[in-house]
Design brief:
It is built from 26 helices and 34 strands. With 994 residues, the protein is of the alpha/beta class. Among the domains are: 9-220 and 236-242, ANL, N-terminal domain (Rossmann fold, 3-Layer(aba) Sandwich), CATH 3.40.50; 444-544, GMP Synthetase, Chain A, domain 3 (2-Layer Sandwich); 735-838; 844-992, Kinase associated domain 1, KA1 (TATA-Binding Protein, 2-Layer Sandwich). The strands form eight sheets. It has an eight-stranded mixed beta sheet with strand order 2-1-11-10-12-13-14-15, sandwiched between helices. The two termini are 50 Å apart. The structure holds adenosine-5'-diphosphate.
Length: 994
């Protein structure tokens, strides 16, 4: 049976209609892009929004069409929203903080037909318009007087009809327009995730979901806005709908103050102060700027009552500063584009509010509880529900009518589990009071020894250090524990600090095995387009800089006396430029030298720089001498043959590590803020006070060595003489050859083995980094080894003659063996030559020679100045035998069947992820990882000699889905023995198989 109530579709036009009718005179104040403060009212906003609707209809916009906005928070932007949504078109907010290529990709993917923008962003629009075939009009939020004189496009944009001035446009249209009348499930807004975890994906809000989100956020324990409030949304309308404020403010009748393009501390303070703002919302970095401004100027916040802080974890220092110094209530909130965005808020329960203030703090720091309309759950990797005990870490999942059900155009496929929950990609705990705490982004969590370490928790504590301005924790590869955390700290201006200070500061506040292995002082911590720490970029930078963890983690200041007598304290050891120039403390029981605040990980850069610019110059390449095709193949083949027999005794690092672990003194259990179980693997350091015990050997234990004779020295001496006499007598009796002849044949055998030993030794030496490439490869393997092979022919033959002519019993065996080894060596050389002769003398293989794949500046820098040059359409030089003078495009087609593009029905993003996984699995090192552009670059070295090749991969949309192309080029001239062809074949097969 149905209820008997009116249906009343929940469409967003009703919100601004309500505001215009019941709060019509309430102000909407904007800092305009042109400069002055502009005042209007909800009544005017509604009227002008209707004009926008009429203008859009006249320009041919129909229900369902996407209309982009690339704009600051202003009253005009709000009018455009309601104007677009009122006629059933979709308002697509574009984030100007993304790279222009990303904006172009997103606007193109969305199929935007018209874009509203601010004067500020015209250069971006001019640059990307040629890539937006659907855009016909760009409307600039300004009047005719402020329109630019000219608008030079970066290329041809066939459908683009011109720039329009917003004020002109809406002046030409009346305010009579019928809004609504469609289903509440109709799409209203489109916002792409910032792509921090893959390709941007479009979240398509409906009128109903936004309407419900408005009602949800108006609950008192959410934002609880009232018509008496004055709200300043610093959080931009282009990111997650300004947390719904453009709906909730008119919905409640609150006065709204829009900050326009200025979001620095001074500008925000000016608006807070002059407009009497009672409520505001922003990400932590904005609040940090405001607090710094207040501290510097001594200003107060007498009217501001409440701030909502979200988008990233809110540090305790911010909460305390607002509450204790300025008497402003802080509500810490969590959400995401996919959740409209409000998901949880840390509003204290009645029970918790009765606790002393300091005991409330852990709860204020958490992300809080879901409001009515949002369901949360926590699961393990196998989808089992986890308890709400504040300890169990798990995948945070969410369900409700304001949560995305799928992405626009089906990106990412099915995104809900069998119960309809969406996996947020966040890792969290939920405590017994229902307070959820984000411990990490699933992609950022540090996995050490099979256990998870929360980077956010360490960051929150580290940023509370009085000298810290910003802190970030990332995991770095560790040979034993998989990953270990590294703390990056941006110091406050003028501050200096030591690594140990930060380690000491964390001491006792986190579990001991969570303690970062290293502290790196940086001049900047990169923030992504949505103001969050860009850990992907940090990890990439560290990798590009060749950073590796220090051998021993930074140690805290040792506990009070007695001081350890051993060893000699080693002061801060700053690694030379080769490791990127960042210092690494090896062991520092004494205070170590000060690190200047401006000790940088990388040079200062613009707010958002393309990744390609951030790639550091690589260390100089070792000089590689040119070698011929056959030489190279002989070398690799001989080396492999020789090295197949491993040296008798290899160093045993594992045994060493075990010995260290065994002698380590058990550490007292640190004070832990969480009673988490001890992970199975704990990092333990050898106690410098206790010298390592020598590994016991059998001899020390009084046991007989396996090869020792169980006789006394005296007896042994006697026995030796007797044995010698016995053997000589036996020799004579059996006609044994003279000693010099046996010695000669031993020498001949050694010479016969020498080429393999040299080549093998050269390869192993280069591989272990003990011998430089020119010596191990060119000299030992290519030069000396073949010469010795020729000499061994002569010595072997002489040996045979000696054996035959001397006519002595078993001597011929040695001679034949020497000759047989020589013959085998020659066999390998001839086979290698034959193989080399079959493969063309090339080192460059590509799947597309029509639009050749070039390398980015970063990849060229990594390739180094001494590498062979990369040519668009290469041909082989005269002297290349059968292939002389021919174009590589033809030779590739003939000799490398694998060198064909891969066209598939899979989405480009999907194919990109597959090829990236295949490249990484092949052991190559990424240089460029740009899924937006579909460009991936990497390099890899051959196993034995480290001959390096560069790979560039391109994934493009194709009529059938996507097209994958590759080019792989050796850095050395001449033939690559099919290495690059084989690589492309392997990678293509891997992608095909997925
Ligand atoms: P994206 O960066 O993928 O576009 P959003 O901008 O929607 O995603 O941000 C959502 C993510 O931001 C969340 O999944 C979470 O990781 C992080 N986040 C949001 N609020 C908080 C918070 N208060 N504390 C910690 N992390 C937060």
């Amino acid at each position: 049976m149905q209820g008997l109530m009116q249906h009343g579709a929940l469409t967003l036009d009703k919100i601004i209609d309500h505001a215009a009718q019941w709060h019509g005179g309430r102000e909407v104040v904007s800092r305009s892009v042109e400069g002055p403060i502009v005042r209007t009212t909800y009544r005017e906003i509604r009227d002008r929004a209707k004009r926008v609707s009429n203008a859009l209809l006249s320009l041919g916009i129909k229900p369902g069409d996407r209309v982009g906005t690339l704009a600051w928070n202003t009253g005009r932007h709000m009018e455009a929203w309601y104007g677009i949504m009122g006629i059933g078109a979709v308002c697509h907010t574009l984030n100007p903080r993304l790279f222009p290529e990303q904006i172009a990709w997103i606007a193109d993917h969305a199929g935007d037909r018209l874009i509203f923008t601010d004067l500020t962003f015209l250069p971006i629009i001019a640059a990307i318009l040629p890539r937006l075939p659907h855009v016909e009009h760009v409307v600039v939020f300004t009047d005719r007087d402020h329109m630019p004189g000219e608008f030079p496009l970066a290329g041809e944009a066939p459908r683009f009809k011109g720039l329009l001035a917003y004020e002109d446009l809406i002046d030409q249209h009346g305010a009579e327009c019928a809004w609504g009348g469609f289903d509440e499930g109709t799409a209203a807004g489109l916002c792409y995730t910032s792509g921090t975890t893959g390709d941007p994906k479009g979240v398509m809000y409906s009128h109903r979901s936004n309407f419900l989100h408005t009602l949800i956020t108006l609950q008192p324990d959410v934002m609880g806005l009232s018509q008496k409030d004055v709200i300043l949304p610093v959080v931009p309308m282009f990111h997650a709908n300004a947390w719904g404020v453009a709906f909730s403010a008119p919905g409640s009748g609150a006065k709204i103050v829009m900050p326009g393009p200025k979001m620095d501390g001074a500008s925000i303070f000016e608006l807070l102060d002059t407009e009497g703002v009672t409520f505001s919302a922003a990400v932590p970095t904005v609040w940090q700027m405001l607090l710094q401004h207040l501290e510097a100027t001594g200003a107060e916040l007498p009217v501001l009552k409440k701030v909502v802080i979200g988008g990233a974890a809110c540090p305790e220092t911010i909460i305390r500063a607002f509450q204790e110094t300025y008497d402003v209530e802080v509500v810490h909130a969590w959400g995401m584009t996919e959740t409209s965005p409000v998901g949880t808020l840390s509003v204290l329960t009645d029970e918790l509010e009765k606790l002393p203030y300091d005991q409330q703090m852990p709860y204020r720091l958490k992300q809080g509880r879901p409001p009515l309309g949002v369901e949360l759950r926590l699961t393990d990797d196998d989808d089992n529900l986890l308890p709400h005990d504040g300890q169990a870490f798990g995948h945070l999942k969410i369900r409700g009518p304001i949560i995305a059900a799928e992405y626009f155009r089906g990106a990412g496929g099915k995104i809900l589990d069998q119960d309809g929950f969406f996996d947020t990609g966040d890792i969290a705990t939920i405590d017994e009071h229902g307070f959820m705490q984000i411990t990490d982004r699933a992609k950022d969590v540090v996995k050490s020894g099979g256990e998870w370490i929360s980077t956010i928790e360490i960051e929150n504590i580290a940023v509370g250090h009085p000298k810290a301005a910003l802190a970030a924790v990332v995991g770095m590869p560790h040979p034993k524990w998989d990953e270990r955390p590294v703390l990056l700290v941006k110091l406050k201006a003028g501050e200096t600090a030591t690594k140990v200070e930060f380690i000491d500061f964390l001491q006792g506040k986190i579990a001991k095995w969570w303690m970062p292995d290293d502290v790196i002082f940086v001049d900047d911590i990169p923030l992504g387009a949505t103001g969050k720490i860009d850990k992907k970029l940090i990890r990439k930078r560290l990798a590009d800089e060749g950073y590796s963890l220090p051998e021993a983690p930074v140690q805290p200041t040792p506990a009070p006396p007695p001081p350890p007598p051993e060893p000699e304290p080693v002061a801060t050891q700053t690694l030379a430029a080769a490791d990127g120039g960042h210092g690494a403390v090896i062991y520092a029981p004494e205070p170590v030298e000060e690190v200047e605040a401006d000790t940088v990980l990388s040079a200062p850069e613009p707010e958002i720089a393309p990744e390609s610019e951030l790639v550091a110059a690589p260390p100089p390449e070792p000089e590689i001498q040119q070698v011929s095709a056959t030489d190279a193949i002989i070398a690799e083949a001989t080396a492999i043959a020789a090295a197949a027999a491993p040296p008798e005794k290899l160093p045993e690092p594992e045994a060493e590590a075990t010995a260290v672990a065994e002698v380590a003194t058990p550490e007292p259990e640190p004070v832990q803020i969480k009673a988490e179980p001890e992970p199975p693997l704990r990092l333990r350091e050898p106690d410098p006070a206790e010298p390592s015990k020598p590994t016991p050997v059998l001899a020390d234990a009084g046991e007989a060595l396996p090869f020792a004779m169980p006789i006394t020295p005296g007896k042994r001496g006697k026995g030796k003489a007797a044995a010698k006499a016995k053997s000589e007598a036996a020799g004579k009796a059996s006609g044994k050859p003279p000693r010099w002849a046996s010695l000669y044949l031993d020498l001949a055998l050694l010479i016969a083995l020498a080429p393999a030993i040299l080549a093998g030794g050269g390869a192993l030496g280069v591989k272990l980094g003990m011998i430089p490439l020119p010596l191990g490869y060119t000299a030992m393997t290519l030069d000396w080894a073949p010469r010795l092979a020729f000499i061994s022919v002569a010595t072997g033959l002489i040996g045979l003659i000696i054996a035959l002519s001397a006519g002595f019993g078993r001597l011929w065996k040695g001679a034949v063996l020497a000759l047989a080894i020589t013959a085998a060596t020659f066999g390998v050389m001839v086979a290698a030559k034959a193989l080399g002769g079959q493969s063309p003398p090339i080192h460059d293989v590509a799947t597309d020679w029509k639009t050749p794949l070039g390398f980015s500046d970063a990849a060229m820098a990594a390739r180094g100045g001494s590498a062979e040059i990369v040519v668009d359409d290469p041909s082989l030089p005269v002297g290349s035998a059968a292939y002389a003078g021919r174009r590589l495009a033809e030779i590739n087609a003939e000799t490398c069947p694998a060198a064909r593009p891969l066209v598939s029905e899979r989405a480009p993003g999907d194919v990109y992820e597959s090829i990236k996984a295949a490249v990484l699995a092949s052991g190559m090192t990424l240089v460029t990882d740009d899924p937006m552009d579909g460009r991936l670059e990497a390099n890899g070295s051959s196993f034995w000699y480290g001959l390096t090749d560069d790979l560039v991969v391109r994934v493009r949309p194709d009529a059938r889905g996507s097209r994958l192309d590759m080019r792989s080029i050796g850095r050395d001239a001449g033939p690559d023995q099919g290495r690059n062809c084989a690589r492309i074949g392997t990678l293509m097969t891997a992608v095909r198989g997925q």
